[in-house]
Please model this.
Amino acid sequence: MPTTASAAHALTDVAASDSTLRRFLHGLPGVDAVGLEARAASLGTRSIKTTAKAYAIDLAISMVDLTTLEGADTAGKVRALGAKAVHPDPTDRTAPSTAAVCVYPDMVTAAREAVAGSGVQVASVATAFPAGRAALDVKLADVRDAVAAGADEIDMVIDRGAFLAGNYLKVYEEIVAVKEASGAARLKVIFETGELSTYDNIRRASWLGMLAGADFIKTSTGKVAVNATPANTLLMLEAVRDFRAQTGVQIGVKPAGGIRTSKDAIKFLVLVNETAGADWLDNHWFRFGASSLLNDLLMQRQKLATGRYSGPDYVTVD
Model:
């Protein structure tokens, strides 16, 4: 069994050429789709007691990347979203802040002003989000603009066309270049798992992203039909667990898109705890990419505190 240091050194040679990278990625164990989906479904049936549920709801709130990524976004909308991220429930200041606000690069300045001094991070999508169809110099300029405006985190999209064509080295080198352009900002690498077709591809993309320097691996943009699922998130959690076992480096995971209810969020937290472990139950290592999720978490939190279900009129509409 290789030591962590020797394993990490061996992995540095994986991307020496397209052929060595291909050999490594295609040498990863194949995914048992039936077993993966069965385990994800089984973990989703775990019963959570009331005290644990209250803790889980607050934890989930603290893990939300409160997101607006629409063509109609305005500075005013972003400032309002930032205020909500800092104080999600204006009637109860014990509610935790969200992890971050996620916006387009031209909205970073407004977001930065809205969350100043709060500890809430500003994340920005970049690299021609969501399709990623742009030249590398354009993508890097997008990243540098976001960082210059004050982004703490960059969410990039991989070139799915290159990945599906088997041009793994191109994808790897692009992630490396974006990581360098991101400077001190943490880098989340989005795979758009709904477009990768197979679980084997999701496993390969996860390892490719981690080898290239991702700080987080992320399921989706939220802009396609199939986004985060328990099964694809479980697969990515297995990848980060195994990567840390081999290298000693911990990588975060961010499921995004389609997670709308407290019940869903708690199922994902169970996946995290049972697969990667308690070290990932922190917003430095696990996030939810969501917009509507926060309101349901707040309503469930109010119900636990008062015994009454407040309904959507008691939370702000983003």
Confidence is low (pLDDT under 50) at residues 1-6. The two ends are 51 Å apart (CA to CA).
